[in-house]
Design a protein that fits this description.
Elements (H helix, E strand, L loop, with lengths): L4 E5 L4 H11 L5 E6 L11 H4 L9 E2 L2 H5 L4 E4 L3 H11 L5 E4 L6 H10 L4 E4 L5 H16 L5 E8 L9 H14 L3 H4 E2 L14 E7 L5 E9 L2 E9 L3 H13 L6 E3 L1 H4 L4
Helix pairs in contact: 1-9, 4-5, 6-7
Catalytic activity: (S)-2,3,4,5-tetrahydrodipicolinate + NAD(+) + H2O = (2S,4S)-4-hydroxy-2,3,4,5-tetrahydrodipicolinate + NADH + H(+); (S)-2,3,4,5-tetrahydrodipicolinate + NADP(+) + H2O = (2S,4S)-4-hydroxy-2,3,4,5-tetrahydrodipicolinate + NADPH + H(+)
Subunit structure: Homotetramer.
Protein name: 4-hydroxy-tetrahydrodipicolinate reductase
């Protein structure tokens, strides 16, 4: 079987560049194109040149329809609006849509779930193996402990991140809520300032740190009288997310349309 051709959305960004590097170095996939927003200075040029090297035959385009026509997967760590637009383009296409975009609203996710009736979609707030294992552990610990244990999710990212809490923090909060058999929206506490009163029993708190070049740090704290349990994941290299996304794109080849996540990819479902 030929190596599947992969398109990267937003190739000039931090994750876009890392994805291009990881795919280019892979012997299991081919980088066949990069998309950018209309009017972006990279559009219409060769990716290799835009990265400061020799031409490599990978086009950068602001016309996604043309570049995804012959692709087997699109990897997308962009913005909610761009992700939804690509989802519309891919409806009924043979190309899988691998989504690492964060900041998606409930309505956005519902729209992607509807698109999954015609497209193979793999979506996750975090695509690293470690974080997905952590998610499973959080669910198990939350199920084992009662509400005497307060749950707090603390996340840290670089100063340029525009959404909070992070997609990973929300994944972890969802896992904790599922372990307790409750809906996260019903128990989430996303910020405290001023005279807030005592902590609500059973709440799941979120705290976002933004600074410097932090790639990704996530702690889930279970705190009771007399003891604390902390589950932690630290990403020190952005390539862990790119490698996970590539693994998802390869796994999705030949799969039926549907909404999948990294637990499916990793066989942890």
């Amino acid at each position: 079987m030929d190596r599947p051709g992969i398109v990267v959305m937003g190739g000039s960004g931090r994750m876009g560049r890392m994805l291009c590097e990881v795919i280019a170095a892979s012997d299991a996939a081919r980088l066949v194109g990069v998309t950018e927003a209309p009017g972006h200075p990279w559009a219409g040029h060769d990716l290799g040149e835009m990265l400061g090297g020799a031409t490599n035959g990978v086009p950068v385009t602001d016309d996604p329809i043309s570049v995804v026509a012959n692709a087997q997967a699109v990897i997308d760590f962009t913005t909610p609006a761009a992700t939804l637009a690509m989802s519309d383009i891919l409806k009924g296409s043979a190309a899988a849509h691998v989504i690492g975009t964060t900041g998606l609203s409930v309505d956005d996710i519902a729209r992607l779930d509807r698109a999954a009736s015609r497209t193979t979609i793999v979506r996750a707030g975090n695509m690293s193996l470690g974080v997905n294992l952590l998610t499973q552990l959080v669910r198990q610990v939350a199920a084992a402990l009662d509400e005497d244990y307060d749950i707090e999710v603390i996340e840290g990212h670089h100063r340029h991140k525009v959404d909070a809490p992070s997609g990973t923090a929300l994944m972890l909060g969802e896992a904790a809520a599922a372990g307790r058999g409750v809906a996260l929206d019903a128990v989430a506490d996303r910020g405290r300032d001023g005279m807030t009163g005592a902590r609500t029993r059973g709440a799941i708190g979120f705290h976002a740190i933004r600074g410097g070049d932090i790639i990704g740090e996530h702690d889930v704290l279970f705190a009771a009288d007399g003891e604390r349990i902390t589950l932690r994941h630290v990403a020190s290299d952005r390539s862990v997310f790119a490698r996970g996304a590539l693994k998802a794109a390869l796994w999705a080849q030949g799969k039926n349309p549907g909404a999948y996540d990294m637990l499916d990819v990793l066989g942890l479902r």
